[in-house]
Structure to design on (218 residues):
């Protein structure tokens, strides 16, 4: 895992180099066979990666990457207190001394190097997860996601998905589960004001007439 740090860190979407860092509700889709989503430098603590889509170019089937190439979506070593929870990860995970929980790994080719870590309630269509602790191996990939709609919306869990309610303490696995679910296209699930008309000054008799146009995002 150490040898991969130098090869990947030069082509990365996000490098975390400080403790007390919180990364949530993002969609990372790097390009290039050695690009990765998140690289966490050494010696950090209290880093939380939650409700994201994390990928490496080689984590996507059919992109022409070389067989046996060691690639990662997220890479962290020699850290403590790193928590990776309720994400969808394609393209490899290499971490030490971390909590890995409620993750869905939907991929046909995967690099998995997780050492001295708590690995709970994760799911994959492959067989690399440790047995027990709520981990699910060899899930039917066709039963997991809706696979329709926007680039991020396709990762919503379909009815009957084995990831529904199978996370830690009964939450859904993946980026749409947990206490702070991923929000499609960055739009919060509250009304949005998209037009506001108001005069610069008001009148004593008529007040300040304002016209507001809003839409619901629920």
């Amino acid at each position: 895992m150490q040898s991969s740090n130098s090869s990947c860190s030069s082509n990365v979407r996000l490098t975390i180099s400080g403790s007390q860092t919180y990364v949530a509700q993002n969609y990372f889709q790097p390009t290039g066979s050695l690009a990765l989503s998140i690289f966490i430098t050494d010696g950090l603590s209290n880093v939380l990666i939650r409700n994201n889509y994390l990928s490496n170019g080689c984590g996507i089937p059919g992109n022409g990457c070389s067989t046996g190439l060691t690639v990662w979506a997220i890479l962290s070593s020699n850290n403590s207190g790193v928590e990776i929870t309720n994400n969808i990860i394609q393209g490899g995970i290499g971490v030490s001394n971390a909590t890995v929980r409620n993750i869905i790994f939907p991929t046909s080719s995967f690099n998995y190097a997780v050492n001295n870590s708590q690995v709970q309630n994760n799911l994959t269509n492959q067989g690399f997860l440790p047995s027990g602790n709520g981990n699910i191996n060899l899930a039917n990939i066709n039963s997991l996601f809706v696979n329709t709609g926007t680039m991020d919306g396709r990762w919503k869990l379909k009815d009957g998905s084995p990831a529904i309610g199978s996370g830690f303490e009964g939450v859904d696995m993946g980026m749409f589960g947990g206490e702070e679910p991923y929000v499609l296209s960055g739009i919060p699930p509250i009304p949005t004001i998209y037009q506001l008309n108001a005069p610069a000054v008001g009148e004593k008799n008529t007040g300040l007439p304002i016209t507001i146009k809003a839409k619901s995002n629920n």
Observations:
- The chain has one domain: 2-188.
